[in-house]
């Protein structure tokens, strides 16, 4: 597999599970559908080395994901991978439905209000359970924008902008 600059990080190996080489995985999106849909993955080791890998099993265990990798058959091999990240080529991501976006596409968007005020850049997305929260950094100011239909107006990936209508008082916090 050729390693390309189009790689996006989808998760981090946070620990081992059992003695047969299984790994605990924290998925940044909280959803394993992308991981299940791709053909090729790249493992970035904690020391920065990258190589292609094959997932042989993936399952949910409580709120965590567990995975097995080809060639990782015991606890010793698994421990060497802890701290590593899983990456996927962007062109392998499944198509999204209308109005759905991958986090990787949203991070970096310039955020403006419906009346044209520039708030800053979307730097992070926080999962809260009921709705995501967009962390927007504008100079020294940080805004927490709820990802709700009545707050998030237009998302334009071509111009890399997001238009929002924040509730009264939100920008004063």
Task: Kindly describe this structure.
The chain is mostly beta strands and 173 residues long. Helices cover 8% and strands 46% of the residues. The protein folds into 2 domains: 7-92, Elongation Factor Tu (Ef-tu), domain 3 (Beta Barrel), CATH 2.40.30; 103-166, Roll (SH3 type barrels), CATH 2.30.30.240. A hairpin with a 4-residue loop joins strand 9 (118-127) and strand 10. The longest helix is centred in the first third of the chain and has 5 residues, at 33-37.
SSE string, helix = H, strand = E? EEHEEEEHEHEEEEEE
Round the Cα radius of gyration to an integer and report it.
19 Å
Q: How many domains make up the 3D coordinates?
A: 2
Structural class: mainly beta
Shape: elongated
Given as residue ranges, the uncertain stretches (5+ residues, pLDDT < 50) are none
How many strands? 13
Strand content: over 45%
Total helical segments: 3
CATH topology type of the largest domain:
Elongation Factor Tu (Ef-tu), domain 3
Largest sheet: 7 strands, antiparallel
CATH domain class of the largest domain: Mainly Beta
Estimate the mean pLDDT confidence: 89
Our measurement of the CA-to-CA distance between the termini, rounded to an integer number of angstroms, reads 48 Å
CATH superfamily label of the largest domain: RimM
């Amino acid at each position: 597999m050729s390693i390309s600059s189009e790689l996006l990080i989808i998760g981090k190996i946070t620990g081992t599970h059992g003695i047969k080489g299984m790994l605990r995985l924290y998925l940044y999106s909280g959803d394993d559908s992308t991981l299940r849909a791709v053909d090729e993955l790249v493992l970035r080791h904690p020391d920065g080395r990258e190589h292609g890998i094959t997932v042989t099993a993936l399952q949910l265990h409580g709120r965590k994901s567990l995975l097995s990798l080809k060639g990782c058959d015991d606890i010793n091999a698994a421990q060497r991978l802890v701290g590593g990240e899983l990456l996927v080529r962007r062109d392998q991501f499944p198509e999204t439905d209308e109005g759905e976006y991958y986090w990787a596409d949203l991070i970096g968007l310039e955020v403006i209000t419906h009346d044209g005020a520039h708030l800053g850049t979307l730097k992070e997305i926080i999962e809260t359970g009921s709705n995501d929260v967009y962390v927007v950094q504008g100079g020294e100011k940080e805004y927490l924008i709820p990802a709700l239909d009545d707050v998030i107006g237009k998302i334009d990936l071509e111009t890399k902008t997001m238009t929002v209508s924040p509730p009264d008082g939100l920008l004063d916090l």
